[in-house]
Amino acid sequence: MTANESCQEFITWFLKNGGTVDLSAMGITDFPSSEGGRGAVALKEIPEGHVLFSIPRNLTLSTRTSSFPSVFGLEAWKKLKLHEGWSGLILSMIWEAIQGSNSRWAEYLNILPTSFDTPMFWDEKDLSELLGTSIIEKLGKDQAEHDFETKVKPAIESRPDLFPAEHSSYYSLLTYHVMGSRILSRSFGVEKWQSDADDDHDHEGNKSIGSSMDVDEQHPTGSEAQDDNDNAEEDDDEDDEDGHDSSDTAMVPMADMLNARYGTENAKLFHEKDALKMITTKPIKCGEQIWNTYGDLPNSELLRRYGHVDILPLPNGQNGNPGDVVEIRADAVVNAIGEAHPNLTTESITERIDWWLEEGGDDTFEFDLELDYPEAVLSIVRLFLLSEPEFEKAQTKGKPPKPKADGEVLPILQKVIQGKLKEYPTSIEEDETLLQTEPLSVNLRHSVVVRLGEKKILTAISAKLDADLRQHAIGNQNKRKSDRQPEVKSHKKSKR
């Protein structure tokens, strides 16, 4: 069966099962890979607030809508902790897949991708090109494979009646990763409808970690909607600290056909009691792509989750992703402070780290194209520079130091930035030369784009630090000159 035939079968299935699509306004087509590949296109001028399609809640695929958890047995389900994280949904999708045409979601599963360009599937050589970025650390591959060995594999082996040997190709680690990647790249957060009190209001589909937002009008003309891309991490637990319920994570047929790109969203998913609706949030011209949103993510996250990067014009005249950030861990800051102030004892450092975290301090700091110094990183540096009496006073008040960028803090921050730059395997010049080289593999090109964007941010921050340090030096020099000036006494006699 061709891709077009599968797509047509999917649309027929979608309509047959209660979904609605305005086929006069929207079509499915293949865009260039730089535009996201298969996506939705406007077939005519579409006004803001137009309903493109609606999905019955029971047509979404989750552990709440699939019959598999009940078939497997809820007691055994809980015993294997399949209600935590994504393991239960992955197992449900595997079971639905081996049902073939007997699965309610057969036509939907047939159009889902079977391979990905994400780093989860890269070899060690390709992964080494990502050194310095946060991607490798965030892959979660070890945790995912641990869940496969301790949850999914035992569940499959315990029920040969549900997972017969003739379908063994579905029970592999590779299939597990493919299913997990489908969830990571395409799932939405679909929470239970809480009450009938809000029936007159829509709720935006949550496709980001967090709760959905109330929208006053059914067709949110002119309303500002929240990011709607929910790709919870693979180790999210049902009982985690933010109260995330893993059964809220759902595959949403049709909604996941829309691509996304930084700052281009023109449609979003909204919740109603019985259905989810994709509604335009601005007018769309005929022939334009209909874009959902991933929350304007940096290229590092786009590559990790979806296997692509965004390259757009930047305000500084260069090209890149306006949402790019560089993440620097708190331990890098602590190491820089330890090198600059070797008199700090391990006990003192540990005590201050523990207190910082107890007070809700960040353990990772983000630097972006705005080139502002994150307040949290300024505060934690100042925390380590406090004397013992000053630290005790801060503990008593329960307040970390104010984020002040002074002559003591800036040199430490410069050391942190320079240390981070050394983590990348190449220089900016080398990467720019690589991008002009043809041919490059897709993985290498994506790696270069990600690390180049990050290094440009770090280099710009470093230049700003140099300028600020010079200003502080000039200010201190002027202050010392002023302090050395003798006091000029007046020789005028006072009037009596």
Radius of gyration: 27 Å
Basic shape: globular
Q: Spans with pLDDT under 50 lasting ≥5 residues? A: 196-202, 206-241, 488-496
Characterize the main sheet.
6 strands, antiparallel
Helical percentage: 40-55%
Distance between the termini: 110 Å
| Number of alpha- plus pi-helical segments | 17
**Tally of extended strands?**
16
The assigned structural class equals alpha+beta
Strand order of the largest sheet: 1-4-11-10-6-7
Mean pLDDT metric: 88
Relative strand content = 5-15%
Write the layout of secondary structure elements.
Blueprint lengths: L2 H14 L3 E2 L4 E5 L7 E5 L8 E6 L11 H5 L1 H6 L7 H12 L7 H6 L12 H5 L6 H4 L2 H18 L14 H14 E3 L12 E3 L9 E2 L33 E3 L7 E2 L6 E5 L3 E6 L8 E4 L6 H8 L5 E2 L5 E2 L4 E5 H11 L5 H13 L5 E5 L6 H11 L2 H10 L11 H13 L6 H8 L6 H43 L12
Parallel strand pairs: 9-12
Antiparallel strand pairs: 1-4, 2-3, 3-12, 4-11, 5-8, 6-7, 6-10, 10-11, 13-14, 15-16
